[in-house]
Design goal:
Length: about 280
C-alpha cells in the first residue's frame, strides 16, 4: 500500500475510532487517534499477518501495551478484514466481543489480552525471546504510551530485552506528551526517553508518528538493526484528526456527545474527500 492509500486508510480508521467510542458512550479516543497512523503502517505495510488465518504460526506479533486505546486497534483490525467494520458500533456493549480492552480469546487478530499498564512490554519481550529460542523468523511489535513509561515494569522488560539482544523486538512509544492528568512532563516526567532506552542497550530511532515517510524510514531502520532491540520514539498529536480533541488531555478517556460526534465525522469526511482529490 502506497503513502496516499495509507493516508486514506488511516482516515477510515479514525472514523471507526470516533464511531466506536461514540456508540459506547465511553472509551479512549485521544490516544487511539494519535496512534492511528502507527496502527495503519503496522497492519497495512509492516507486519506479516493474514486476516484469513489470524493464528498462522509465522505471523508477526503485536502487543498493545497501552490496552485502553483498544478502539484504535479494533478499527484497524476491522478495516484490515479480521472482523466486520459494523461491529465497531458494539464496543463496550453487554455481550459484545469488543471489550474495553483487547481480549485474545474472543477477538480475531489480538495476540495478547492487555490493559494493565506496564505489563504488555514484558509479554512482547517473552514472545521475542521465544522466537529466538525456537529459531523462528517472526518479529514482535509493542506499542506503549509515553505516560506508561512511568511504570517500573517497562524498565525491567527493557533491561532484559537489551541484555538478551532481542533484535526481533520493536518497541513503539506513542509520544503525544499527554496522559489522563495532563502533560507527562508535569505529572512524572520520563524524559529524556531516548537516553533511558539507550542505557538499556536499545537502538533508538526518532520518528514523526503522523507522517508515513518518517514511519517507513523508522521501521526500515529497526528491521536492519542487528544485535539489539529497537525503540521508535514516535512524536504524535493526541486526538490527531479531530480539531477539538487535538492536544487536549481531557479527551484521553471520554466519548463525544451527539453534537461533537457530528462535528468530528464531518471533519474526517472532509479530510477523506481531500485525500481522494490528490
Amino acid at each position: 500500500m502506497e503513502k496516499l492509500e495509507l493516508q486514506k486508510m488511516a482516515n477510515e480508521i479514525r472514523k471507526g475510532i470516533v464511531t466506536a467510542v461514540y456508540n459506547a458512550k465511553s472509551g479512549h479516543p485521544g490516544g487511539s487517534l494519535s496512534a492511528a497512523d502507527i496502527f495503519t503502517y503496522l497492519y497495512f505495510k509492516e507486519m506479516n499477518i493474514d486476516p484469513k488465518n489470524p493464528k498462522k504460526e509465522d505471523r508477526d506479533r503485536f502487543v498493545l501495551s497501552k490496552g485502553h486505546v483498544a478502539p484504535g486497534l479494533y478499527s484497524t483490525l476491522a478495516n484490515r478484514g479480521f472482523f466486520p467494520v459494523e461491529d465497531l458500533k458494539t464496543l463496550r456493549h453487554v455481550g459484545s466481543y469488543l471489550q474495553g480492552h483487547p481480549d485474545m480469546k474472543h477477538i480475531p487478530g489480538v495476540d495478547m489480552s492487555s490493559g494493565s499498564l506496564g505489563q504488555g512490554l514484558s509479554v512482547a519481550v517473552g514472545m521475542a525471546l521465544s522466537a529466538k529460542m525456537d529459531n523462528k523468523s517472526y518479529r514482535v511489535y509493542a506499542l506503549t504510551g509515553d505516560g506508561e513509561l512511568q511504570e517500573g515494569q517497562i524498565w525491567e522488560a527493557a533491561m532484559f530485552a537489551g541484555h538478551r539482544k532481542l533484535d526481533n523486538l520493536v518497541v513503539i512509544v506513542d509520544n503525544n506528551n499527554l496522559q489522563i492528568d495532563g502533560c507527562i512532563s508535569d505529572v512524572c516526567s520520563p524524559y529524556p526517553i531516548d537516553k533511558k532506552f539507550e542505557a538499556f542497550n536499545f537502538h533508538v530511532i526518532n520518528a514523526d508518528a503522523n507522517d508515513f515517510d518518517s514511519l517507513e524510514a523508522a521501521f526500515k531502520e529497526a528491521r536492519e538493526t542487528k544485535g539489539m532491540p529497537s525503540v521508535i520514539i514516535a512524536k504524535s498529536i493526541k486526538g490527531k484528526g479531530v480539531s477539538f480533541m487535538q492536544n487536549k488531555a481531557s479527551w484521553h478517556g471520554k466519548a463525544p456527545n451527539d453534537e461533537e460526534y457530528e462535528i468530528a465525522m464531518k471533519e474526517l469526511e472532509k479530510a477523506g474527500e481531500e485525500l481522494c482529490q490528490k
